[in-house]
Write a structure and sequence with these properties.
Length: 466
């Protein structure tokens, strides 16, 4: 239930923002209708208006469907199934929101062919030549402070754990979770790279007048530069909150979970004014547009979404729909990016299947003459009896925090930390049991159980006899 509530809080606001952004950005405007170039006069065609009405109705229906789907997870008690439902929901959300657009794109292309609106077999390609068409708005210096501030939080975490002091009581615990702080801090250099990448995209040509093109590009790049800089500062704040909660042991788990929800909500929320500002820029320059077609015409846009133009050497180009840039699939970098995307998408069902297999495969604890065996999907532990020390049977587990491993209602295995002391221990047990074994091997603390209390007691009695 806790997982479902957290996912609902985290994902629903994001879903609503994504739906709003897609609905607004996909509407016909600025010489484009569902990824196809259309002149201002032809935008008023009644058939095109009907395609837009059908798209809008299907979008609204699909948004309602995707909003209801996740509630199925609330009726299922198994964590692995809940995770799978939420994961599948993300993919269903993308497909259901994109599918009406893809259908509308095909209809517009058919309309253009049927009406003879493809005026040229080989449209002219317009390139902005003034000042080499270069407009740069991102300055590395403006990103230096948030990047350095977030990395300082990482140094703060790790230095305090290696220096003798009275502040850090659980140095091992902090070192285990310090990697999370580092990964969060590395998002800021990533934001800078993305900002620079977008800033270097070619100047979009909307007019035969160079000054119009350059001012148009400058206005849009300023908007994106501000967004990435604001996101960088938000990330820095999140990094420091997590670092302070980790160092001073102030509910680090809660800081990460709640902070992640709030962080996602704030960053996604920053996109709303970006859309509004871009819409204002487009409206301001609408009267300046005197070029409708361009070299990257409909033939190079798959479904109006995916750019594939072997004649264009640019890796990144402006999206026809939505905000920002997209990758040219015909380039080497584009092929690598899409290959990685396909691999990631194929790995998701495999990972979900693995989580389900983990939860539904029973654990087993057994003993022979020389060793204790802990089996799950494989032989997890093989512990010599002669090395087992300080054996005791316990009925209450200490308060634990997972470092590496699995933590489910019927399975807890891996490396954990005891809250309050920071002591590291290895778990292999069924948390629903009432009896557990606690012992040490070579100074390492273990908490173990069998599938049920009867299996645990059999191992305990055999160990007691030795």
């Amino acid at each position: 239930m806790v997982l479902n509530i957290l996912m609902l809080i985290a994902m629903y606001p994001m879903m609503m923002i994504v739906c709003y952004m897609m609905y607004v950005s996909m509407k016909p405007k600025n010489g484009l209708a569902f990824g196809c170039t259309i002149s201002a006069v032809r935008m008023k065609d009644e058939t095109l208006k009907e395609i837009e009405r059908q798209w809008a109705a299907e979008m609204k229906r699909n948004i309602i469907i995707t909003a209801l789907l996740p509630f199925a997870a609330f009726f299922i008690p198994y964590v692995s199934i809940q995770i799978t439902i939420w994961t599948v929901w993300v993919f269903v959300l993308i497909v259901l929101l994109e599918w009406p657009f893809i259908k509308a794109n095909a209809k517009v292309k058919d309309l253009k062919r049927g009406m003879g609106w493809y005026d040229k077999e080989n449209p002219e390609e317009f390139i902005e030549l003034k000042a080499a068409g270069e407009v740069r708005r991102v300055k590395v210096s403006t990103f230096i402070v948030p990047v350095m501030a977030s990395m300082l939080a990482v140094v703060f975490v790790y230095v305090l754990t290696f220096v003798e002091n009275d502040i850090v009581k659980n140095a091992g615990y902090v070192q285990d979770f310090g990697l999370i702080i580092l990964m969060l801090a590395l998002m800021n250099p990533l934001f800078l790279m993305v900002a620079q990448w977008m800033d270097r995209q070619k100047t979009e040509v909307i007019s035969t007048q160079s000054d119009v093109n350059i001012n148009y590009a400058r206005a849009k790049k300023n908007i994106w530069k501000d967004f990435w800089l604001q996101s960088s500062w938000v990330t820095t704040g999140y990094v420091w909150i997590c670092a302070i909660s980790l160092i001073f042991n102030i509910r680090f788990d809660l800081a990460i979970l709640v902070g992640c929800v709030m962080y996602t909500f704030v960053v996604m929320g920053l996109l709303i004014p970006v859309m509004r500002k871009i819409r204002d820029v487009e409206a301001r320059y609408e009267k300046e547009r005197d070029i409708v077609t361009s070299g990257d015409d409909d033939r190079y846009w798959i479904w109006g979404l995916i750019y594939n133009n072997p004649k264009d050497k640019h890796t990144m180009v402006s999206q026809r729909v939505g905000m920002g840039t997209t990758i040219n699939l015909a380039t080497k970098a584009g092929k690598i990016w899409w290959a990685v995307t396909v691999i990631v998408m194929l790995s998701v069902p495999i990972l979900c299947g693995w989580v389900i297999l983990e939860e539904f495969t029973p654990i087993s604890l057994s003993i022979n003459e020389d060793e204790v065996h802990a089996n799950h999907l494989k032989l997890e532990h093989e512990l010599p009896i002669e090395k087992i020390e300080h054996l005791e049977l316990v009925e209450d587990l200490p308060s634990l925090t997972k470092a590496v491993g699995s933590a489910m209602e019927t399975l807890a295995k891996g490396s954990f930390r005891i809250k309050g002391t920071g002591e590291k221990c290895i778990l292999f047990l069924n948390p629903q049991n009432e009896k557990f074994l606690r012992f040490e091997v070579d100074g390492q603390v273990y908490y173990m159980s069998g599938l049920n209390d009867e299996e645990t007691m059999k191992v305990y009695e055999r160990l007691e006899q030795n």
